[in-house]
């Protein structure tokens, strides 16, 4: 269920570039670039993520640190890419990055805020407050703020460890399957583009389309032409047009659990309190041929189901 549009905002995980520029030199502010480059699929199954470190060297917010999500803040023993870390690993990785407990964390990326939102959700689930730079590095440079270049200076280990928890904001394949078939309450939301949802565009994963019974609220549809989050009233309107009248929790997925976090950020800002992310998303779901996939524009509108 959604809040009414006149309900006061209860969570403000975004910070604008001007506000960050005034804070960036403060001792307790840590700015993290979490960019990963992900070229579009040339053919189905074309999965080629690349570290964003080279882009960070070419240009970054002065004083920021690069976080390589290819090697950190993901479960290194998992079979899937970018799987959420356990609380202990999260604390270890923050310490290795030199982020002291209590620091004011601001996250950005060099793209469309999806990776920043992903890391924000990882921290949010651990009970660690952080903010996302609205519009990312593109907005920072667009308004003419200074950009640093060159390699990163070693920051050293933090003297203390964060007390990370697990707030249960992630769900697994079994719960998604149960929501899809209606044996568990909830609403599945695909955060991919309408073309990827319909299965008319190439996919990085095994099969095209979407999980049966899921709705489509594209992460990119919540951004304006400059890559900024739309005004909250418009985000609420777009979310409500898709979700109004549907049961909670809202369970969001995408291809690999990244774009889903940008949709989640928009829903949280709109007052949705029961939002979960399917971490394995279509990378996990489509790898099992027994799990069905659907192509078409919306449930019940000429869909074709593939799988058992």
Brief digest:
The protein has 308 residues and is of the alpha/beta class.
What does the model show?
This protein has ten helices and 14 strands. The protein is an alpha/beta fold. The protein has two domains: 129 residues, Oxidized Rhodanese, domain 1; 137 residues, Oxidized Rhodanese, domain 1 (3-Layer(aba) Sandwich). Strands 1-7-6-2-5 form a five-stranded parallel sheet. The protein has a five-stranded parallel sheet with strand order 8-12-11-9-10. Helix 4 packs across helix 9. The N terminus and C terminus are likely disordered.
Give me some keywords for this one:
308 residues, alpha/beta, 2 domains, 14 strands, globular, disordered N terminus, disordered C terminus
The CATH architecture designation of the largest domain is 3-Layer(aba) Sandwich
User: What would you call the structural class?
Assistant: alpha/beta
N to C succession of SSEs: EHEEEHEHEHEHEHEHEHEHEHEE
Described by the principal axes of the CA atoms, the overall outline is globular
Largest sheet: 5 strands, parallel
State mean pLDDT (0 to 100 scale).
90
Strand content: 5-15%
Number of strand elements: 14
Total tally of structural domains? 2
Provide the CATH top-level class of the largest domain.
Alpha Beta
How would you name the CATH homologous superfamily of the largest domain? Rhodanese-like domain
Q: Name the helicity range.
A: 25-40%
- Which residues sit in consecutive blocks of at least 5 with pLDDT less than 50? 1-10, 300-308
Number of helices: 10
CATH topology of the largest domain: Oxidized Rhodanese, domain 1
Strand order of the largest sheet: 1-7-6-2-5
CA-atom Rg in angstroms: 19 Å
Termini gap: 31 Å
């Amino acid at each position: 269920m959604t809040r009414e549009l006149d309900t006061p905002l209860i969570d403000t995980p975004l910070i604008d570039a001007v506000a960050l520029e005034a804070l960036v030199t403060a001792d307790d502010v840590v700015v993290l670039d979490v960019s990963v480059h992900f070229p579009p699929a040339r053919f189905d199954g074309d999965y080629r993520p690349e570290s964003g470190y080279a882009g960070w060297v070419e240009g970054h917010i002065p004083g920021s640190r690069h976080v390589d999500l290819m090697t950190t803040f993901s479960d290194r023993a998992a079979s899937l890419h970018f799987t959420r870390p356990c609380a202990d690993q999260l604390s270890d990785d923050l310490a290795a990055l030199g982020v002291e407990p209590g620091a004011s964390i601001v996250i950005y990326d060099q793209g469309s805020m999806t990776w920043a939102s992903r890391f924000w959700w990882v921290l949010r689930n651990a009970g660690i407050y952080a903010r996302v730079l609205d519009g990312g590095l593109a907005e920072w440079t667009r308004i003419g703020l200074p950009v640093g270049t060159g390699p990163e200076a070693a920051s050293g280990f933090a003297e203390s460890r964060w007390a990370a928890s697990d707030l249960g904001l992630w769900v697994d394949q079994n719960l998604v399957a149960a929501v899809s078939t209606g044996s568990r309450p909830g609403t599945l939301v695909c955060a991919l583009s309408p073309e990827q949802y319909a299965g008319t565009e190439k996919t990085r994963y095994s099969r095209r389309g979407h999980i049966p019974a899921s709705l489509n609220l594209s992460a990119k549809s919540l951004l304006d032409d400059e890559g900024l989050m739309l005004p909250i009233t418009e985000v609420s309107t777009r979310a409500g047009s898709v979700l109004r009248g549907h049961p909670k929790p809202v369970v969001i997925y995408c291809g690999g659990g990244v774009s889903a976090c940008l949709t989640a950020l928009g829903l949280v800002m709109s007052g949705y309190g029961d939002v979960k992310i399917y971490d394995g998303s279509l990378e996990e779901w489509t790898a099992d041929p027994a799990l069905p996939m659907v192509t078409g524009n919306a449930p019940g509108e000429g869909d074709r189901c593939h799988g058992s």
